[in-house]
Specification:
- The chain contains 20 helices and ten strands.
- The chain has 539 residues and is mostly helical.
- A three-stranded antiparallel β-sheet has the order 3-2-7. Strands 4-5-6 form a three-stranded antiparallel β-sheet, with no helix packed on it. A two-stranded antiparallel sheet has the order 1-10.
- The protein is flat, with a radius of gyration of 38 Å.
Length: 539
Amino acid sequence: MNNSKNAQKRIRQKALTTARKNSGNENQAFNNKERIRKDPRLKALNLINPVEGTPRVPTLADIKTMYGAPATLAEVDADTKKANDAAIGQCHSLLHHAISIMGMSAYPQFLGYGYLTGLAQNGLIRAGCEMIADEMVERGITLTTKGNNDPDTDKQAKLDRLNELITKINLLPTLRKAVSISKYYGGSLVYMDFDGIDTASENLLNPLILTKNELRGKKLRRLKVIEPYNLSPGQYNAADPLQEYYFKPRYWFVMGKAVDASRFLPPVQENELPTILRPAYNFFGIPLAQIVLDAVAHFTECREAEARLLTKFSLTVFKTNLNEQIFSGGDWAQIDNRVNNFVQYRSNDGVMLIDKESEDIDIKSTSLAGVKDIVSQAMEIVAAYFNEPVTKMWGLTTSGFNTGESDLNNHYDHIASQQEKQLRDQIEYVLKVLQVQEWGEIDNEITFTFNPLSEEKEESIATVNKIKAETQQIYISNGVISPDEGRECLKADPKSGFNNLNEESVPEEELSEEERELLGLTEKREVLSQDEKPPKEVE
């Protein structure tokens, strides 16, 4: 109890000291206390000391409120909710210590699904999120086999069939939607809907096992994206980090219906969180929309300030004798008429008459130097938060000697890494399900690659191929490799232009006359004498 009182006292003293330092007077300190008292985050959690207006040390109940699962449309049974609340208690001591030392900066900042839905309507945030979602799937994938660029007939038939199936179930468009939703809400789940399974009567708590018997008579007919605000986590382990389901739900509630986690694809998750914060974000990640909100808000403020500055760029000062017209007992009507007359005739073609003795006009202009640089810097920060180059995010041309090509290459490398982190497991899982339902087994040699996002120019490809050809010629001339090995290199290089060669098209090597004679390939010719020559036929 004494430790709790001392902690509260330290927080109060720290808040008041900071307030006095920032303000320099008691009035400003009072305003800071009012600001803390009105903080919606702390007020909602009832973490404000009503007397001093400073944050108080949170209790275990406060920790459960802050770090528990957020409010969603899904319905969770009382037993599961009670178990999940108890699991949060495992983190109480660590979170309590952090908040006691760091104060408000340690509070989680999950905005809630209602607020995030509002951000999804922000034009700038939406443009960045949708652009990334498009880039992650627009080039598609290529099914292939491991270590074999020329699969046999059976393997190729399987690849062709899998291509038909993933097109039929709209795999890539569905994943594109899942990625888009994860940008706004932090993650999403994709449900696998099979023929022969009635979601209304089937017990979806039974795990889906990828075996021939399990999927007998069942065909994957579609993939359905489930938004996180329709989900709530089921039971998970919060006591043993060595367990598989440590802070990982075994099942999910979809609008009150419990569904085993194996019936979903692996979660499409954005910006993975530390373990102890996962419940606060519904076991997904930090939404990209929430991360970029600060940069977008600052850019919007700069843009609006620039617009306001343009309306106040020029100020006309009308000098007149106010002492005689107003201060001596007159009214404003005469002044209003004078100003309205000036505004009405103010143009490059207008004429303004003023009294040369008692009136004058002065134009005050505000300098706009540096405004463009400030707004441009805010635009670059927004693009940096989205991990998009300025040329692509804003459509601006680069200045100086920079062509922007290196920025695009770096950006495509980032998108490729996001594809591996967010989409690799999901696509591999679908391929396994399709193989089991079609052939009853999983071929581990079947895999896929993401098609490259950037396309090299033909001129640069030709230059690289020429260098490779000269290098191979040197190796062959020096006996390092044989011509057949050089041919295999051409077949293995997808950009060589000769990757479709086959064994039957191997050119025959021409032999010298001496080699032909040794091999008995020369025709035997006999020289006939004059008497042995056949007689000419007489007509």
